Amino acid sequence: MKIFLAIVILLIALLQYRLWYEDGGIEGIKHDQLMLADLKKQVEEKRQRNAALYAEVEDLRKGQESLEERARKELGMIRDGETFFQVLDK
User: Fold this and answer.
1) Do the Cβ atoms of 25 and 19 come closer than 8 Å?
2) Which pLDDT score, from 0 to 100, does residue 83 have?
3) Distance between CA 66 and CA 59 in Å, rounded?
4) Structural domain count, the chain
5) Chunked mean pLDDT (size 10), the chain, 90 residues
6) Which residue range forms the structural domain that includes residue 51?
7) Which residues are CB-neighbours of 19 under 8 A, at least 6 positions away?
8) pTM higher than 0.85, yes or no?
9) DSSP states of the chain as a string?
10) Would you say residue 25 lies in a domain?
């Protein structure tokens, strides 16, 4: 009976060790949950960025005004007959 009890205690100790300290144990699960939360956050940020880019593409497809506005801001272009004024701040 003592040998059986010793074997049962040894098995319980082994299972507890695996539960707490190995990769598939509680620490591993906590680590995986943190990684999953971080990945979900990254996915949401990328979704928002994609939505903004999609809206910008739609604007560019639909209107000439948005093209002109972008050309003026980013490339410094002007139309024929327009005068360009540059204001310098001190």
Assistant:
1) yes
2) 80
3) 7
4) 1
5) 88 80 77 94 97 87 78 81 79
6) 45-76
7) 25, 26
8) no
9) -HHHHHHHHHHHHHHHHHHHHSTTSHHHHHHHHHHHHHHHHHHHHHHHHHHHHHHHHHHHHH-HHHHHHHIIIII----TT-----PPP-
10) no
The packing angle between helices 26-62 and 2-21, to 10°, is 20
- Is residue 57 a contact partner of residue 64, using CB atoms and an 8 Å limit? no
For residue 60, being part of any structural domain is answered with yes
Tokens of 73: 């801001």
The CA distance from 90 to 88, in Å, is: 7
Tell which phi-psi region holds residue 76, choosing left (phi > 0), alpha (psi between -120 and 50) or beta.
left
pLDDT of residue 51: 95
